[in-house]
Amino acid sequence: MVKQQGVNITGKKIMYLIILISPFIVIFLSLFIGRYPLSIDIVTQILWSKLTSSATGIPEISQTVVWDIRLPRAILGALVGGSLAVSGAAFQGLFRNPLVNSGILGVSSGAGFGAALAIILFHQTSLVYLFAFCFGGLAVLLSYFIGRVYNTTPTVMLVLGGVIVSSIFSSLISFIKYVADPYNELPTIVFWLMGSLATARFQDIAIAGIPMVVGMAGLVAIRWRINVLSMGDKEAHALGINTALSKGIVICCATLATAGAVCVSGIIGWIGLVIPHIGRMLVGNDNKLLIPASIALGGCFLIIVDNLGRVITGSEIPLGILTALVGGPFFVYLLKKTKGGGW
Amino acid sequence: MHLLEVIDASFSYKSAKIFEHISISIGPGEVHCIIGPNGCGKTTLLDCILGILKFNAGEIKLMGRNINQYRIWEIANQMAYVPQSHAKTFPYTVLDIVLMGRASHTGMFSSPDMEDRAIAEDALAMVGLSRYKDRPYTQLSGGEGQLVMIARALAQQTPLIIMDEPTAHLDFKHELIVLETIVRLVRDTGLSVVMATHFPNHAFYFANHGINTFVALMSNHSFMAKGHPDNILTEENLQSVYNIYAKVVTQHIDEIGELKQIIPVGTLANNFQGGQTV
């Protein structure tokens, strides 16, 4: 009995390690996937020459495909997927509700509105990023102040504030779609809202990566506190933590990460809701393990889905469509296999 | 020295007066039962003591120092809390829950270390639930769940634990297990407990087992009587607080000695007067 438990714990540790390193493996594998076939030694040579800035005899086009197209796209996928999943996990703990997702405080619809507005006003990509990011943050601030009563922020009021702000911004998105030019602007808005990593370049990663990495790092740092916050305000206070401050830090970090993700990739649903649950089934509910695992699983999942979207058909399938189509059956499989993990 | 002193405290929500001029002092190794009818303000008083609500007047001294001079985590190092009912959302393991008792000893950006883990395991052993440490706490029965909450409070290693109706919703046996656990902890570790309860017999239970027990009878926005159960839980007092006719009886049990209990006979509205139906 004791021995079996020991084996069980070692097995869990190994699985946790595999989960944590899996994004790096998936990033590497995705360098081979696409219409332009490349062998393993060519890819490794290209990576080696770029990292050591030495010359190589490999054709320019192969180098561009690996270094300027596939690699940044995979890294961006890992950052975006990780950000959405970890924010979802953090919000589920904070709001003590397994059904909330990364967009619960309105960040996704706010960012969607910002992007749509920038598309019809400026037709310029960099301003789309900026508007999406700022409006995403603004939406969360609005939710926070709507949910604030008597100097406290009860979680029910916060969620209600988020629902109201989300619905207002969704209406505004519909309004912009309605007034947009149906030949140029409308398709751009619709495709942006469906989510894509196709525009990924290293510059994008450098800019949007900052809020994503800062937000994710913050959530990793405060992850055990999320356990305590999930006991509810009264118990968390009696356990000795400043609930208002801790909640504020979690909301700030999750918002930074999600807004950073949404502004470069558009609205990608499903990840922020379901990846944390896949994490719960694999590593348990302790946020000490769940938060890092969510980042890794979310990253892997989005890279895999993005690769599928690139190769299944002649033209790319938007990510917002594929995430649920691919992830749904996988989720059901895990649900059956782990018997739900103690719910 | 007193662990906790509440001095002439009053509390009201906007216009609704909850209680006023309440004072209580708690020393080491004592169990204080706060007894009173539904809605008399027991939970509000406990919330004020825990620092979740603030009195309109009066003060609290914790270890001789005004509680407003303490940081939140410093209070949690002096008193722990066992809730009446705990809403279970995520199926954390039992040990994860008990480990949360170490929050006040853990920095904002860190996690409990091996020492905290050992303390949590000790706390779990003290309530006799070590065998469940890796189980999801959502799968425990109500009584076991309440023992886990007590273990979490023990992991805070405080001299004082505040309990809000810790035996509410429990069956006969589990109620007794919780009471036995409290008696054992107070006797073995010198812990003090402040406990809101609906059952006057809980106070007699502690007194019967040789615990230094006090009762505060809460009624009409204040403590109408305070002191040893024998002097406070009298037939006259129960009649004036609850409007019931009750009988205090003593039974001799060989292993323990004299056991005092209250037997509720009937409400006064039911025409009981001094045991005579009229």
UniProtKB/TrEMBL annotation, chain A:
Q: What is this protein called?
A: ABC transporter permease protein
User: Mind telling me which PANTHER family this protein's record contains?
Assistant: FERRIC ENTEROBACTIN TRANSPORT SYSTEM PERMEASE PROTEIN, MOLYBDATE IMPORT SYSTEM PERMEASE PROTEIN MOLB
Annotated signal sequence range: none
List residues traversing the bilayer. Answer: 14-33, 74-95, 102-122, 128-146, 158-180, 209-228, 248-275, 287-305, 317-335
Q: Which keywords, in A-to-Z order, does the entry hold?
A: Cell membrane, Membrane, Transmembrane, Transmembrane helix, Transport
The terms describing its cellular component in GO are: plasma membrane
Q: Which Pfam families match?
A: FecCD
TrEMBL record, chain B:
Task: Report domain ABC transporter positions.
Answer: 4-245
PROSITE patterns from the UniProt entry: ABC_TRANSPORTER_2
Q: What is this protein called?
A: ABC transporter ATP-binding protein
Q: Give the organism, scientific name.
A: Sporotomaculum syntrophicum
Q: Which GO terms describe its molecular function?
A: ATP binding; ATP hydrolysis activity
Per UniProt, the keywords (alphabetical) are:
ATP-binding, Nucleotide-binding, Transport
Q: Where are the transmembrane segments?
A: none
